[in-house]
Structures are given as structure tokens and as C-alpha cells.
């Protein structure tokens, strides 16, 4: 099966390398995407918005002769959900890595600090302690060395959705900085942040305790969780 890996903010396709190899070794066709504006530090990101990232993934889905599994990390989860909306018959499953489906009219994160029209990787103090679990000094240095500024509009543009068939696309949510029990409690309490997830007709929740970047902190365990989700597809 083709597995399309969608990176979160500040990361390109190569950030998936330690996860992609076990997936490929298991016999899957793995494509890790570098989204528009994330090609290099010097790339022009001025006019790139959320719809451009969605369109890039839709193009990758359209290039596959068979339904694909989308894996979206962090902000990449919002993109994966929009692609499931655009191509519900071509997406066999969405795997949300420490993320979830973003509802129509919501933005990924419009509070991140913008500098000259783009969002550089902020100081670590901007993140919650839960984000940084297992991200030791060496990994922080590695992350910062590969980080690419995110196009500002990708973070602030509103999600556009239109096909209710997206709710029938099977989903797996891999919970890292919060537990599946906590997520169930928030959903039961009617948290608006998880309202779109609650509307899915077929989803599972999986625990992978670590911080917000498991592809850096626990890549083998993340690959195993993705493979298990694919096997259930």
C-alpha cells in the first residue's frame, strides 16, 4: 500500500527518514512529502497558504492508482483531513500523529510568532513541557539545524471542507503528549478542539507516550504504530 507522510511545521520530507525506512522494509510504497515553501531556508514562502499544501497532497494522492494511507504529523493532520475531504474515495485511512482533524473555519495555529511573513522555529520556551518530552539537547540541536520557516498563511488560513463523506474515512489517532484516556474525556466533555474527531464514524486511539515530535524521539515505535494501523486498513 502507498503511505504518504505529511510533515508538521518546520519540517521537510527527510524528517520522516527514520520512520519511512521500517515502513518501506515492511513492503509498503512510502512517499514522504516536502510541502511548498519548505524546500529550503531560502525558498519563497510569501504567497503560500494552507490550500497550497492541501493541493500538493491531493496531487500525490491522485498520482496513486489505489487508495492511500495518509499520515499527518501535527499541522500535517489538518492537511490530511482536508485531503480526505477532497478525495474521500481515494484515502483508505488517515493516521494522525499527535494531531487530529481540523474542522471547517478553524486555523492550525494563528498564535505562532510571525517574523517577516514567515514563522521560524520559535524558542523552546514557546512550547508546553509536554511538547518537549524526550526531546533532549542533542535532538533539539538536530531539530533546529533542519528546521525551515513555515509559511505564515499555512498557520492562519481557515480550513475549507465540503464533503461529509470525510467522516467515513477510517482514522487512527496516535496520542503522544496526552493519553488516549485524556482525549476520550475531552471528547465526552464536548471540547470544541476535538469536535471534528468526534464526528468520525470509524476511528481508533493509540498511545505512544513521548513529546510532540515522535519521529525524532521514538521513530521505531512510531513506525510500528503506523504499520499496525495500516494492517487494520
From TrEMBL:
Signal peptide: none annotated. Coiled coil: none annotated. It holds the Pfam family Abhydrolase_6. Residues 3-225 form the AB hydrolase-1 domain. InterPro entries: AB_hydrolase_1, AB_hydrolase_fold, Sec-Metab_Biosynth_Hydrolase. This is Pimeloyl-ACP methyl ester carboxylesterase. The lineage of its organism: Bacteria, Bacillati, Actinomycetota, Actinomycetes, Micrococcales.
